[in-house]
Amino acid sequence: MSSFETTKSQFVQDHFEIIAIDLPAVTGTCTFEGGSGYGTPRTCDQATNATATYKFTNDDAPLLPHNTGAEAGGIFRCIKSISETPTKIKPGKGLAARGTLSIKFTDFLGDPNPDAPGVTDDVKAQGTFFGKLAARNNLVNAELRLRLYRVEFGGGVDIPNGDEKRTYIISSITNDGRGVWTIKAKDQLSVVNFDDYEWPPANDYSIKNDITNSVTTFAVSTTSIIAAGNIIRIGEELMKVSSVANIGTASATITVGTRGNDISKTNFLSKTTKDEHDAGDEIFICDYNDDERIDAFLKRVLIAAGVPTGLIPIADWIIELDQWLAGITLNTIWTEADDVTKVVSSVLNDFLLDMWFDPVDEEVKLSAINVWKSSSRVLTEGVEIDFKSIKVVPVEELRASRAVVVYNKPNLTASDDLPSFTRVSIFTDPTLETADEYGKPKAKTFQFSHALTKVSADVLVQRYVSRFGQMPLKYKWKTQERNLVYKTGDIVNINSDEKQGYDGLPDASIRAQILAIKPSYSKGREYAVEALTFESAIDTTPGAPPSGSFTLIGNIIEANLFVQAGAPGIAVDVTFILDAATVSSTSVDIASIVAGAFVAGSTITIIMINGTDWQGKGGRGGSTSDGYSGLGVNVVESEYGGLCYDAQGVTTDIYFSGAAPDAHTADGYLRAPGGGGGYGGYWESIPPKAKPLHGGAGGGGCGINVGVGFVDGDTIGNGGAGGTGKTNGSFTSGDGGAGGDWGQAGQSGDPGTAGNQDPGGAAGRGIIKNGATVTIYGDTPTRFINGTGDTI
Fold first, then answer.
1. Among 680, 787, 695, 780, which Cα is nearest to 741's?
2. Can you say whether the dihedral through the CA atoms of 682, 687, 690, 691 is positive or negative?
3. Would you tell me which of 160, 267, 397, 647 could form a disulfide with 772, CB atoms 3.0–4.6 Å apart?
4. What is the DSSP letter of 695?
5. Nearest-CA neighbor of 784 among 768, 771, 766, 769?
6. Pairing mode, if any, of strands 50-58 and 75-85?
């Protein structure tokens, strides 16, 4: 551990700073314009062969050793002031504000290159140190290190190990004309001006001849660098390159797949329409994601924009996203060049990620916004927070009781208007819109997204409301360096009289994320801190198991409880209130509700209230119909009933009636769907003519989405009622069977004289455990109909 850390708890502290600047240098022989040079690339004909480090400290710093440690050399006492504005996280907006640094120096007589051949005594005596430093060097983009020190017990100073280092890059150096020079610097991420880079990079490739909408091999410009596997765009049409020939020559050609086909890799990526194109039309090489990890894509884009690989802690990013966005990947095509800022921001916003630069760790940090994150420590006013320094400010613009995102753009080259998108995800916390809370809705609408899927869209809107549903509060306070035991991005609990519980005592359960820590160098070193609360239905009080409660209302179709809880990356105890809800599915192969991918050790409590009706999709009735050319019969088998709840191995308690946790009174129904009725016996042909004779259609099984009962020529079957068979002379087809009632199989069709009827679909399932322990409370024969489920 460095002496900076070991001396941090000193009660009496004497602080000072050292600024170190690295500049290229020429040592040994240095000639310039026929005479002796001054030891820098600008003033030597010889090549750079060394680095010079210039060090400056406060004008009131203690006596320091001038030639100690790795950065040996004089330390000049000339720093007039330091102003640092560190990075600041902007929750919900992706990219953080970038850090800046400004240092004012009092100029003095001296020479920055006293050992250079051209620096004679006369040169040393004329001009000023900073005047000559600026004239001989280009300081822009040079590395600057701000090193924070404190004097140790007994007055010692450990120059090599006693500092906390913050690295910046110089952006300018100016002189006010009165002997004060100002160096301004930016953090290492700020140096990369994302707006100066495009993703994907543009090119000037084109087709050489007119092409029809069906040709698949065509000539391209001599400069084209196109490879097999590329996805290209010409006009509004996307094509997948299957092979190339003579690339980079005057006879370059490419071959693409069948025009107008969907564009796919491992997964479907986009629809497209084929078109004719003219000679000279642009060929744009798209970038695409095919089950690509979010962290891997962000790294690719940042490196392409000039961010050094060493600043990207990809291992940490992987750990973060594996916990909080497990299994979520990117599948899309980037069909046009755009500012890197927009590309990175769109991905961060789609997945509710924060990105910022830490000048101490010298790393680009990536963090998922998720209210299930536990705090790392409790900060108490009077200790880690200076007494009576805390202020609390509501942030109304972030608050939202519901969030909406439009997504799924099947044809990625279509316009970005609403009609080009086919799906929407909405999450609402109804408790926040009641008269007891805020009284009316307040919505957050995200930009339309081409990168989201149903799961990631649902996670996005849930996490936003969960984080910002209750009024977000910004906390501001001061803290002394000895009590600065947290970093930007940390999640902490705040214990202060400024935030009281219902009983008037300080509420230490308040969690907040540290947004910024701004040092002040005017009086010792104290820090101005900003944090934003995580006030929601989630309880992550230190020492207690993480728990939370969510209310679901209205039409609930194929819900994933893990997603509805914000995809917690830790084991949790979570409660879902189904309030006057109608629960269903659109397919017998998809459960109306699944538990989802909760971490092992999690538990779920489901409380149905106000007459909640939970069912699944009823089985389709069997049917027969004319074959092709009027010959024979097409047969559709009856279908089994659907599934209400799949516990997927997660311990679950379900309350149907009576007293329930959290003072609720349960009142609800969970009823397995019915199977579809079977079709009646049918004839492929009736002698002496080749004429088919239909059987009756089976009725659809019971369910909120009743199984379809098919047309049999005369009637349509419905839930609980099969179709009626036809007759023809002495040959009689059978009647269709009735669809099954709740939890019942569909009836078999009447064989008639043909004898080839459908036996009917199996009964649906109420609850299946898949290895879970499922306990039910307040169930009655009318409230809980389990069919072929495995829970009793």
1. 787
2. negative
3. 647
4. P
5. 766
6. parallel
Q: What is the pLDDT of residues 143-188, one digit of tens each?
A: 999 999 887 766 667 777 778 899 999 999 999 999 999 999 998 8
Q: Which of 522, 283, 500 is nearest to 392 (CA)?
A: 500
Chain CA centroid to CA 728, Å: 64
Q: What angle do CA 115, 120, 121 make, to 5 degrees?
A: 110
Distance CA 660, CA 263 (A): 51
For the chain, domain boundaries: 3-190, 290-368, 378-395+472-533, 398-468, 547-785
Number of Cα atoms under 13 Å in the Cβ half of residue 512: 30
Could you give the CA distance from residue 754 to residue 118 in angstroms, rounded to a whole number?
Answer: 113
Q: Specify the residue for token string 């884009």.
A: 301
Contacts of 322 (CB under 8 A, 6+ apart): none
Give the model confidence (pLDDT) of 648-657 as tens digits: 999 999 999 9
The residue assigned the tokens 């910024």 is: 516
What is the mean pLDDT of the segment spanning 391-398?
A: 93
Secondary structure (3-state) at 153: helix
Write the burial class of residue 781 (CB in 10 Å: 0-12 exposed, 13-18 middle, 19+ buried).
exposed
Cα–Cα distance for residue pair 516/555, rounded to 1 Å: 42
Tens digits of residue pLDDT in 731-740: 667 778 888 8
- Locate 745 and state its tokens: 């199989």
pLDDT for residue 223 is more than 70:
yes
Neighbour tally for 662: CB within 10 Å? 9
Helices (H), 542-664: 561-564
**What per-residue confidence (pLDDT) applies to 68?**
43
Instruction: Check residue 121 and report its DSSP letter.
Output: H
Tell me the two tokens of residue 288. 């695409």
> How wide is the angle at C-alpha 54 spanned by C-alphas 50 and 57, nearest 5°?
160
* pLDDT tens digits along 496-518: 887 777 788 877 778 899 999 99
| DSSP annotation of 356 | E
> If 0-12 CB within 10 Å is exposed, 13-18 middle and 19+ buried, where does residue 95 land?
buried
Mapping DSSP to helix (H, G, I), strand (E, B) and coil, where does residue 272 land? coil
CA distance 671 to 645: 10
Amino acid in the structure at residue 640? Y
Quote the distance between the C-alpha of residue 556 and its chain's center: 24
Q: Are 710 and 635 in contact (CB under 8 A)?
A: no
Q: What is the pLDDT of residues 52-91, one digit of tens each?
A: 999 999 888 877 665 443 344 588 999 999 999 989 999 8
CA separation for the pair 518, 89 (Å, rounded): 12
- Taking CA 251 as the corner, what is the angle to CA 246 and CA 256, rounded to the nearest 5 degrees? 65
pTM of the model: 0.87
Output the DSSP codes for 17-77. Answer: EEEEEEEEE--S--EETTEE--SSGGG-SSPP-EEEEEEEEETTPPP--SS-SSS-S-EEE
CA 540 to chain CA mean position, Å = 22
Report the distance separating Cα 83 and Cα 5, nearest Å: 23
> What are all long-range contacts of 64-69, with beta carbons under 8 Å and residues at least 24 apart?
64/157, 64/159, 65/157, 65/159, 68/159, 68/160, 69/159, 69/160
State the burial class of residue 91 (Cβ atoms within 10 Å of its Cβ: 0-12, 13-18, 19+).
buried
Torsion on CA atoms 701, 704, 709, 711, rounded to nearest 10: 170
What mean pLDDT value characterizes the chain?
Answer: 88
Q: Which residues pair with 659 in a beta bridge?
A: 665
Please, which residues have CB within 8 angstroms of residue 772's CB and are 6 or more apart in sequence?
595, 647, 648, 649, 650, 651, 652
What are the residues facing 693 on neighbouring strands?
Answer: 683
The full 3-state SS of 168-195, as one line of letters, equals EEEEEEEECCCCEEEEEEECCCCCCCHH
pLDDT at 629: 45
- Which candidate, 641, 559, 573, places its Cα nearest to that of 603? 573
Residue 138 reports pLDDT greater than 90: yes
Measured CA distances, 722 to 15, 282, 673, 752, 757 (Å): 88, 60, 16, 15, 13
